[in-house]
Design goal:
793 residues; mainly beta; Maltoporin, Chain A; 22-stranded antiparallel barrel; globular
């Protein structure tokens, strides 16, 4: 081994032995291994759409299996993201896309429904770039793979920031199943779930899984009644819900697997979800230097909310609207905040093997509807509201072929097609101007948007085994996307029209976007020994442009104001993977550097209030990731991870100013220069450490203990770097204790998450019609203490 390689291995081994985050899951299903000497529990991943071991694949990837997910009750994407360093999968509360996915500091804003995520999801082969799916639970999961950095070749049309791939469990060879129930004490959350699986015939198997949950909430709502100077006859009624977010969810999945021969198999999965909660803002709190104050637009008065404390502490004030206004406000649920979400995910995967060629077809359809009403003043005052509905759906078809020849050359190729549409409706309210004389309704406007898009894409990759230990791989993906939009106000309250804020009623603007791009990729891989892999990769990524879907179409706003350009990425990484000390020590090290051009961001325009997408000039991420796991004994494991990430704007001279920013603070007119400053939600450091210990207590019982600590350094919550929205560094501690039967028939677990009870922000924006010191913040969930029981049969 060369001195350089010895240095890398020694440094990595030392860091890993200090303990922290799991680098892999030990319970993935066994699949055909590329090395005959691999252990039976080797992790198998499909990062290159072929089965490879986690050690062999030349990709920066983290794999988390069912055992680790169940150990910490990671039943939604937000909790799953917390298991992988430098990953934030956040649900947000300001309308728009509803979520923001970030890997290595690169992600997309959640504040506009017109934006696709820079980090995409892949659910059982179904590629999705819409953020709303973060709202729903995921359970009965076999494995989650997080691919970091641009992924141009193997996952749908393109993913410049990375991919989160979720594979749910499938049918089994014999009849089996489980029932699990639990109660979380702080949020008064209770759930029950279960699955049954087995064969129907010699060639046909099934799996049925279902889950139901109900939660009162982990945020107390202390809102009280507020009367506006301009509207003394319609005071707000205070908190309609004592605790938030108040979720109720039912979801289920049906799986059929058909294996008529060794040459062909087909798997159908249908996954449905129905969720209801206390509104899109129900997971938010206000963060202010002073008390919360909101502008009463008609009187020009700042109205104070005496019930608000402006701290992240598990308390908020969110007032419901006066019932008289709610009764004449379409879609407002009588003025009481709520969200109704429904989704359907369907995938049909077929594989046909002909000699050394494997042909795969993945047909998918996904659809969701998110419909709700909320008070977007984020406090007790009834001044800013929206009754918003977002319906999206898409049909996708992917065809792939992979070769597995014994010679020096192999290849992969494929086609991808997507046909999608998205419709939004926003019934907005920023002042009580009285009822419309034509319809007897209070809301100020109704904004409609109709969006369609088609994607055509093809990729090819050639793999050249130069020697038994050296591999060259190169390929490219061609992508062509077209998008059309129509947006306008179908209704403007005749009293509100006189203000001249919105575009005229019936005035619709239309636009068309078309673009195509070729994204190349190349990798050189050296497997110096059967237990080590070293690789270097050049990668590119691409996300098309399109049109913003703002909450309000202002007077004079044109399609050019709504359009935004593509986002592109290119750069590279060097990685090392090894299984050392008789494969007891598992290590990964990655150094990366990527440049992004045309980064798609959103900014808040205070007059009229609206978020629109724009392109930042350029940005760059540079970092180092180091992680490992050391099996001290068969019962005792240490794990460790450290990530350093410097994500900054290279050039962003026309960034929007934050509210109240002065010339001395860098604001020139309405813009500031953020060149050289950090990206939003991009912590520089992420450190984790953990242990797992399992032992037999008796001939029939076992005890399992786990603990994981995580430190995340500070980061910006707002893209305009409002200083109120700086999240300081924080630490979290998770732990679990399990008593279980050794034959795995039952288990009783006590699970603690965020035991330090840290209240921290994961996304946010400035409070509409508020003072410069006020921002709303989506908080990470505080302390959880969950008692959970499982019975398997």
């Amino acid at each position: 081994m060369s001195p350089c390689l010895r240095t890398v291995v020694s440094a990595t081994a030392l860091a890993a032995s200090l303990a922290a985050q799991p680098v892999l899951a030990q319970d993935a299903e066994t699949a055909t291994d590329t090395r005959a000497t691999a252990p039976a529990d080797e992790i198998i991943v499909t990062a290159r759409r072929r089965e490879e071991t986690l050690l062999d694949v030349p990709v920066a990837i983290a794999a988390v299996g069912a055992e680790q997910l169940e150990r910490y009750a990671a039943t939604d994407l937000q909790k799953i993201g917390q298991l992988v360093p430098q990953v934030i999968l956040a649900k947000t509360g300001g309308g728009g896309a509803g979520a923001s996915f970030t890997i290595r500091g690169l992600g997309s804003s959640a504040l506009d429904a017109g934006i696709d995520q820079t980090v995409s999801l892949n659910i059982d082969g179904l590629q999705i770039s819409r953020g709303r799916l973060v709202a729903q639970s995921f359970f009965d999961v076999q494995q989650v793979e997080v691919l970091k950095g641009p992924q141009a070749l193997f996952f749908g049309k393109n993913s410049p920031g990375g991919v989160v791939s979720v594979k749910t469990k499938g049918a089994t060879d014999k009849l089996e199943g489980y029932v699990r129930a639990g109660y979380e004490f702080k949020a008064d959350e209770r759930f029950v779930e279960g699955a049954i699986s087995g064969p129907l015939t010699d060639t046909l198997g099934f799996r049925i899984a279902a889950r139901g949950s109900k939660m009162s909430g982990y945020i107390d709502n202390n809102a009280g009644p507020i009367t506006l100077p301009s509207d003394p006859t319609h005071p707000s009624i205070g908190a309609a819900h004592d605790r938030d977010p108040g979720t109720r969810e039912v979801l289920g999945r049906f799986t059929l697997e058909w294996n008529p021969s060794s040459a062909f198999d087909a798997t159908l999965k249908v996954f449905g979800d129905k969720l209801h909660d206390n509104g899109e803002t129900s997971g938010t709190e206000l963060l202010c230097d002073g008390g919360s104050r909101t502008l009463d637009l008609l009187s020009g008065t700042l109205v104070s909310d005496p019930y608000s404390d402006c701290e992240l502490n598990g308390e908020r004030t969110l007032g419901a609207f006066n019932p008289e206004i709610g009764a004449k406000y379409p879609g407002s649920n009588g003025g009481v905040p709520e969200t109704r979400y429904e989704s359907l995910l369907t995938s049909l995967t077929m594989n046909y093997r002909a000699g050394a060629l494997n042909f795969t077809s993945v047909s998918g359809f996904w659809s969701y509807t998110n419909d709700g009403f909320d008070n977007f003043a984020f406090d007790s005052t009834p001044t800013v509201a929206g009754a918003n509905k977002d319906h999206s759906e898409a049909f996708t078809q992917e065809l792939r072929v992979n070769s597995d020849y014994d010679g020096m050359f192999n290849f992969a190729a494929g086609l991808f097609y997507e046909d999608g549409k998205r419709d939004t409706r926003g019934n907005g309210f920023i002042a009580n101007v009285g009822t419309d004389s034509r319809y007897d309704t209070y809301h100020n406007w109704q904004l409609l948007s109709d969006n369609t898009g088609k994607t055509y894409s093809a990729f090819g990759q050639l793999i050249f085994d130069v020697t038994d230990t050296l591999e060259l791989a190169g390929g490219a993906r061609w992508t062509k996307e077209t998008k059309r939009t129509t947006v306008g106000n179908s209704y403007v309250n005749d009293n509100f029209a006189a203000f001249g804020i919105t575009a005229d009623e019936g005035e619709f603007t239309t636009g068309r976007f078309s673009d195509e791009q070729i994204s190349p990729e190349a990798t050189i891989t050296w497997r110096a020994t059967p237990e080590t892999t070293i690789y270097a990769a050049y990668k590119t990524g691409y996300k098309s442009g399109g049109f913003s879907n703002p909450s309000i179409l202002s007077a004079g706003q044109t399609i050019a104001d709504l359009g935004f350009a593509p986002e592109k990425a290119d750069g590279g990484e060097v990685g090392f993977k090894g299984e050392l000390l008789d494969r007891r020590l598992m290590v990964n090290a990655t150094v990366y550097r990527y440049t992004f051009k045309g980064l798609q961001l959103t900014s808040f325009n205070p007059s009229p209030p609206s978020f629109t997408i724009r392109n930042a000039a350029s940005a760059r991420t540079t970092g180092v990731e180091l992680d490992g796991a050391f099996n001290v004994t068969p019962e005792f494991t240490l794990r460790a991870a450290a990530g350093y990430n410097k994500a900054k704007y290279l050039s962003f001279p026309a960034a929007p100013c934050y509210a109240g920013q002065t010339a001395d603070e860098g604001c020139t007119g309405t813009t500031q220069d953020l060149s050289g400053t950090p990206l939003v939600r991009a912590p520089k450091w992420n450190l984790t450490g953990g242990i797992t210990y399992d032992r037999e207590l008796t001939s029939d019982l076992g005890l399992g203990l786990s603990g994981d600590a995580n430190y995340t350094s500070g980061y910006w919550l707002l893209e305009n770097q409002n200083p109120v929205g700086w999240q300081k560094g924080f630490a979290r501690l998770n732990a679990t204790a399990r008593l279980y039967q050794l034959d795995d028939n039952w288990e009783l677990a006590l699970i603690g998450r965020n035991l330090t009870n840290k209240y921290y922000g994961i996304a946010g924006a400035e409070k509409p019609f508020g003072t410069p010191d006020a921002v709303w913040v989506n908080i990470g969930r505080p302390r959880e203490i969950l008692l959970q029981g499982t019975v398997r049969f």
